Amino acid sequence: MRFVEVETGHVLTVSDLQSLHPNTSFPSPLAHDDVSDLGYAVLKETSQPDHNQDTHVAIEAVPALVDGIWTQQWLIQERPAAEVAAIAAAKAKSAEQAQKMTGVEFEGVMCSATKDDQAGLLAVWMDYMSSPSEFHPTRFDFSNGSKLVLTKDNLPAFRAVWGAFRRQFFNP
Prior knowledge:
The protein has 172 residues and is an alpha+beta fold. The protein folds into two domains: 77 residues, no CATH class; 86 residues, no CATH class. It is built from five helices and nine strands, in the order ββααβββαββαββα.
């Protein structure tokens, strides 16, 4: 619960009131009648208005007296261009990470494409390349929890599908 200093519109917390009036004992919870004699009113808090949080920011404004009740007010302002760009970049990176974790489907299995997956699959591929005819079926556990048995028959096709998926994350 917060309060408004009626004369100035300044917003205060219970702690602020207690600090400003150290010799006053306040009931808990406080009500309008408990603070009105001191020049304060209970602030009716409101939700931030709808806005695009990627491009704009809601800033608390000076409260206003609305129908006799001190009510929280908001201003919606544009974010600086650099901040908008940083938010967009962070969202793009997050989306890329989510896509890597979701992965690409091969033989009915969603195969993620994280760095750990890449390192593990490289080891499996190197084992296969060292002697394709002697390659033994290998169960691979992906970072997203999926499992796929790679064999000498399906590994080349898997490599083509997974490699193309993974390459889309490389910067040109």
